[in-house]
Design brief:
With about 170 residues, this protein is α+β, with helices and mostly antiparallel strands. It has five helices and ten strands; from the N terminus they run H-E-E-E-H-E-E-H-E-E-E-E-E-H-H. The strands form three sheets. Strands 1-6-4-5 form a four-stranded antiparallel sheet, covered by helices on one side. Strands 7-8-9-10 form a four-stranded antiparallel sheet, covered by helices on one side. Strands 2-3 form a two-stranded antiparallel ribbon. The two termini are about 40 Å apart. About 5% of the residues have low confidence.
Length: about 170
């Protein structure tokens, strides 16, 4: 029950009947074909967002072609309920100036010996991962490893970490 509240409905994408997202039986390919706007298809052996097809951002024709390709590979793709990432305002520094931009964001909880740690990512694209342009802030990683008892030294190619933010904010983050 807990898994159902935190993990989106996910099925191996093959020709079959299975339980749909609302608990009723569905013919999986037919369901995927007719519910494009609420679903995501993705290869289950890829990483970095390769092949991720978010239905609401693709035409029905492109969706159908991806579905046909997925069904031919027999078990190498999954279909998931689409969970819309949150859009948040993010201050971004560019050439010494800070502008606020809307970004898609997600976060996850990692457990470390000192307790839970929340790792957040943001991206201009709806696939929020590093390979697709999403950024994991190095300071977040440093916090996680520091909380786990590791001595951390941040190295940045710029003269100043988090340039563009005021000193008080920087001190809170590092």
């Amino acid at each position: 029950r807990t898994v159902k509240t935190v993990v989106p409905w996910t099925r191996l994408l093959i020709e079959r009947k299975c339980e749909g997202p609302h608990g009723t039986p569905v013919d999986l390919p037919a369901y995927v074909r007719s519910h494009r706007a609420g679903l995501v298809m993705k290869p289950n052996r890829e990483c970095g967002g390769d092949g991720v097809t978010i239905g609401r951002y693709f035409t029905q024709d492109r969706w159908e072609k991806t579905l046909a390709r997925a069904l031919k590979t027999k078990g190498e793709w999954v279909v998931q309920e689409h969970i819309t990432p949150v859009e948040i305002p993010v201050p971004l520094e560019h050439r010494g100036k800070v502008d606020v931009s809307r970004r898609f964001a997600n976060c996850g909880v990692i457990t470390v010996p000192g307790g839970p740690f929340i790792l957040g990512r943001s991206s201009a694209m709806p696939v929020v991962n590093v390979a697709q342009g999403g950024g994991i802030v190095a300071v977040e990683y440093a916090s996680m490893f520091s909380a786990a008892g590791t001595r951390v030294c941040l190295v940045d190619r710029r003269n100043e970490i988090l340039a563009g933010l005021d000193r008080e904010t920087i001190q809170c983050l590092i």
